[in-house]
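We treat protein structure as text, and this decision shapes the records that our systems exchange. The tokens are whole numbers drawn from a learned vocabulary of local backbone shapes. Below, we set out a record of this kind in full and without editing:
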Amino acid sequence: MSTPLSDLERIKAESRYLRGTIAEGLADPVTGAISEDDNKLLKFHGSYLQDDRDLREERRKQKLEPAYAFMLRARLPSGVVTPAQWLAFDRLATEYANGTLRITTRQTFQWHGIIKRHLKPTMAAIHEALATTIAACGDVVRNVVSTPNPVESEAHALAYAWATRLSLELSPRTRAYHEIWLDGEALVGEPKDEEPLYGATYLPRKFKIGLAIPPLNDIDVFAQDLGLIAIIEQGELKGFNVAVGGGMGATHGDGSTYPRLASVIGFVAPDQLPRVAETIVAVQRDWGDRHERKHARLKYTIDRHGLTAFKAEVESRLGFALQPARAYRFDHNGDRYGWIEGNDGRWHLTLQIESGRLADVGGRRWLTGLRELAKVHQGDFRLTCNQNVIVANVAAADRDRIDAIVAAHGLDGYRSYSGIRRHAVACVALPTCGLAMAESERYLPDILPKLEALLESHGLRDAPILLRLSGCPNGCSRPYLGEIALVGRGPGRYDLRLGADFRGQRLNVSYRENVDEPAILNALAPLFADYADHRRPGEHFGDFLVRAGVIEVDTSRSQVEVAA
């Protein structure tokens, strides 16, 4: 007896290319929600139905339905935003959302708190700003990310252009998006959309692509389903090393789910890249598990069939063999703050945004400050996978004006931040994420000063340490690549994970499970002391823990594999 397909496969198959009854649900004034089937389809359009979990119990007592609202996510290849787009997105944050913008770990914006009747006008306004939300979520190739400073050289610009091309060519073709959100003409009868890559049921699960340019691994290239490592020699883009099978998601207590780093399977020339990428996506489309969604990501497909068999299938469909992988080196995993000059004489200012949340809080007026920058900036903005923003392509004569706006709104804190604060990433978690088991974004401002105090007591204030917080094990903040990571178990309780490296090439391991804050701090205090006393020059915290034998890494799964 064959295993039945997962329920979502049925929903996709019956959706008429992602239409479902979304339009009818939006028009229903009785509820602030839509049906569960339509909510699953809505993800393909870039949105999730959520509710404010802080208000659940009180609304239940009042016999009211939950405080439903929608999260909306844009598709912004490589995170490039014009000043005009920034101002349009800012207006939507205050007019339709909860008064904030949020930079995600995939170089794009999310809006939270959009009620149902405002969802369509928000989508239309994003379209008017020459952006879209299609395929920002769902079982498709998601927003393609890349190293966010392509103007460092001509080769950087070319690599960025390839990432942007992939994002465009691997987007869904369905007309449902235009029909539902942009008042496009609805087709009469059964839709005849063509999805030459995806077919009527799209992919088994989400698919993430990222492009890194050594020596910076600022996108965590090995966390991607398809990771592309640009090989630049003598200033010329020679091509890309291809890595497959990365992914962060796991489930507590289920050993059949796990984070995995992508495996390097070879090298391709630039003009081969689109076909190679599409072929890898197609193999996952055909080989991925459509019965058990927890095992549907590419990492499980590869581990189930074997890396050698997967590579052979890709090469068979291509009709040629991948070249051997070429040498590369990563030395840095985070963002570089402050002003950096490009080869063309223009300047780029990277600002740190705590947890990516653009809001006006106390002396730091992030939302207002970036709005004022957008009013005068002549270049563009670039979002990073570490939730920060680059004010890019600034003429030398405009630096003082930019600095003045940054200082006036309290956005220059990065100048005095500790090493661990400069490399902290947190997911949204409570109150809006339905999967969250513990706080993350709202907990970061509480835990950071306590960690900083411990580090400072041992003379480690400026030591760069990758800190990742996640409200659940699904891994949106890439917690398994943190030198220190807290993964939510329940209210106020986390798994403490340690030992990833600073280059994004080794996973961490569980050090303490299901512990509260005092236990976390008590566990870290002696490790910080040993690190201060016994580290080697330039040795990062995660590497020290491995060398000192504090943790033992399973190299079969926790380090980057290179196929023969």
Notes: The mean pLDDT is 94.
